[in-house]
């Protein structure tokens, strides 16, 4: 499915009926051949926008997966780069791709870092956290950063109700809620639980000063608003 090197429909079904951790362990060897990997365009646009704020010292990729965000951290940081994720399978793939990076297997809702990084990034992970779990995640990132450190990530508002994308994402989230109501363990992945306003509120509650700027390189909607924003949370 997706490509000759991607997972089959059967493999995706088994993954979807697993826990988040087990599902990603299973998907890890073929993850980079799926649309779930953060597109290069978003990574490049984020690195380009961050260039005016750097360079940074040590960098952290939160929920690193197979390491797509480490490309941005490596480009922006002059010191070490570290990836943290709770899937041993994903970390194994990332370690092979980035042998010069450090990796820590941990639940990012309880990260074991304290003032060790100047830049933290994250890509494509926030849908795996329920809204009530975000405070612990953001508080952990805040602790991990040195004073003046920056937490940066690309984010988009939900598509307008008049678009097909709105209904596709609404339908996906609905299916996931039904799946989690009738099947255990749950697989948390929702596309409509991370609006910019709610994310900003949670970041501010964790202690961050938050600004956003458009990622113009990713284009704009018909109403002129950008498809993606860059959130900049400063400690």
From TrEMBL:
Alphabetic keyword roster: Methyltransferase, Transferase
A Gene Ontology biological process term: methylation
Pfam families: Methyltransf_25
Listed Gene3D superfamilies: Vaccinia Virus protein VP39
GO molecular function: methyltransferase activity
Name the record gives this protein: Class I SAM-dependent methyltransferase
Residue intervals of the Methyltransferase domain: 60-149
Statement: the UniProt record of this protein carries the keyword S-adenosyl-L-methionine: no
SUPFAM superfamilies linked: S-adenosyl-L-methionine-dependent methyltransferases
């Amino acid at each position: 499915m997706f490509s000759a090197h991607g997972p089959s429909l059967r493999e995706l079904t088994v993954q979807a009926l697993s826990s988040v951790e087990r599902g990603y362990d299973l998907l890890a060897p073929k993850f980079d051949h799926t649309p779930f990997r953060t597109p290069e365009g978003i990574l490049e646009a984020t690195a380009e926008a961050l260039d005016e704020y750097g360079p940074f010292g040590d960098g952290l990729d939160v929920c690193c997966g197979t390491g797509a965000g480490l490309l941005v951290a490596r480009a922006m940081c002059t010191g070490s780069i570290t990836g943290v994720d709770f899937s041993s399978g994903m970390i194994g793939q990332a370690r092979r791709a980035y042998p010069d990076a450090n990796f820590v297997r941990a639940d990012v809702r309880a990260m074991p870092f304290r003032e060790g990084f100047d830049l933290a990034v994250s890509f494509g992970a926030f849908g795996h956290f329920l809204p009530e779990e975000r405070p612990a995640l953001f508080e952990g990132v805040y602790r991990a950063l040195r004073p003046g450190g920056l937490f940066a990530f690309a984010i988009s508002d939900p598509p307008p109700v008049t678009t097909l994308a709105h209904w596709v994402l609404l339908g996906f989230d609905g299916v996931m809620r039904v799946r989690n109501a009738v099947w255990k363990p749950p697989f948390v992945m929702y596309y409509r639980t991370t609006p910019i306003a709610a994310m900003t509120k949670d970041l501010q509650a964790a202690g961050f000063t938050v600004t956003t700027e458009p990622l113009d390189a990713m284009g704009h909607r018909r109403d002129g608003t950008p498809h993606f924003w860059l959130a900049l949370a400063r400690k």
